[in-house]
Predict the structure.
Amino acid sequence: MINTIVVKNNQCIPLPEIPVLAYHDFLEWNTTRVKDINFHCVSYFGWKRKGRIRLFCCMADDAEGTIAISSAEVPGDRGQSLPSFTARHFSFHCFERDLHEKLGINYSDHPWLKPLRYPVDRADQHSTIENYPFFSMESEELHEVGVGPVHAGIIEPGHFRFICNGEQILHLEIQLGYQHRGIEQLFISQNDLLKRNLLAESIAGDSVIGHTVAFANAWESLCGFQAGDDIQVARTVASELERIAIHTGDLSALCTDVAYQLGSSVFGRLRTPVINTFQVWCGNRLAKGLIRAGKNQYPLTGNIKNALIRLFDEFEPDFNEMYKRTKTLPSVLARMERTGILTTEQAVETGAVGMAARSAGLIRDIRWTHPCMMYASLPHQPVVKHHGDVYSRMQIRRAEVNQSIRYIRDLLDRLPETNLHNPPLSRPKADVMAISLTEGWRGEICHCAITDHNGELALYNIKDPSMHNWMALALAVRHNDISDFPICNKSFNLSYCGHDL
C-alpha cells in the first residue's frame, strides 16, 4: 500500500497522485514518522468541498530533503469526533486547533482544543475572543498578571496571561486572534497576480521577502515556470539582506531590554543603512515591490552590487566590535545566560523551527535540509547552539549576520547576466498542488496552493514559523521571573499578524 507521495521543495504534483488513506491509516503513518527527529510536519490543513473535508499532511524528511504528502477524507458535518494527532505528538496541536476552528472538525482526545485565531469564517460563530477559556490554578499563593491585548508603542495586539508565584512565572498562556484579515481567502478571491503578490508582501510586515519568495516559488511551480539564475540570485541576496536587517534590529532591542544603551543605539543605527539599501534597490525600505513571480522586477545591477559592497565594508567592523563589547559585559550576560531556556525535548515536542529550534540543538533550517534558489551552491551550515537560552538566540543572530554577509559577497562575485526576456507566466495547471518552503529570518515558512479543474486557485494555505514557536515561548518562560519576560519574548521575536493571518 502506498501511503504517501514523496516530492521535493517547490515541486508541483497532480492531485489524483496524492494517496487518499483511511483516517486511521493517515493518523498512524504521520504520527509514527514524526517520532523520528528527522521528520517534522511543515503543514497540515483541510479543504472542504461537496460536503466532505479532505485533509492534507505534509511531512518533511530533513535527512533526505524530501516532503511526504498524504491525505484522508472525513465527513464535513460536526457530528463526528476523530482521534487526534496531537494526543500522540503535541507538535500537531496548532494544526488541529486550526482545523477544529475553521472547518468544525471535532477531536475526541485533543489535550488543548482551544481557539487558535478566531477567523471571521470560523465554524462556530458563538466562539468569541471575549470568552477564551484560559487555564487557571486555584491557590491563595498564586496571582494572575494580564498583559495586552493593547500594548505601548506600535506593537500588534496579543494577550499574555501569566500565573505567578510571587515574581516567578509558573504558567503563561498566549491568546491571539485579534486580527481578522482573512488573507488566505483573499488569495483566492483576488484573481490577479499583482494583487496576490501584494498580499504575500502583507502577510507579516517584517518578513516581506520570506513570504513573497515563498509565494513566487509556489506560483511559478503551479505555472511550470523555471526561474533563471538572475532571479534566483536576486531572491537569495534579498533573503539574506532581510535576515541581516532584522537580526541587527533584534540585537538592538535585546540590549534595550537589559538597559544597555550603547548596544541599543549602535545596533539600531547599524540596521538603518541595511534597510536603506533596500530603498536604493527597489524604492522601499521593507523591500516591498522587489520580488515578483515570473520576473526580476529590480535586477541586481552593478550599482546595487557596489552599494552592497560599500554597506558591508562599513557595517561589518562596527557590528562585530559592538557585539564583542556586548558579550563581555557581566551585567548583560547575567540577564541573558540561563534565561528563557527551551530544552531540546521541548523544541521537538512543540515542533519548533528556526532560531528557536537551533538554539536548543535541533537542526531545522530549510536552507540546509530543503535548499532552493542559490542555497544549494552555497556552503551553508546551520548555526546551532545547545543551551536554548536568550544568550544562545543572541549568539545565533550574530553568527547568522556574518554568515549572510559572506553569502551575499560570494553571490555578488559571480553575478549572472540579467535576462530581460523571460517568457510570460502561463496559467496555472489544473488539479495540482504546489508546496514551497523557504527559511525566513524567523524560521520555516510554508505556502501550499491547490488549483481546481479549471486551473483557478481553489485553496491557499500559509504557515508562518510563529505558528510553531508561540508555544515554545510559553514553555521557555516557565520558572523565570516575570521581569525577564520582555527579553525572553524579544529573543524569540514572533509575529502576531503572521499567526493571525
Notes: The chain has 16 helices and 14 strands. Residues 5-127 form a domain with the Beta Polymerase; domain 2 fold (CATH 3.30.460.80). The mean pLDDT is 94. The radius of gyration is 22 Å.
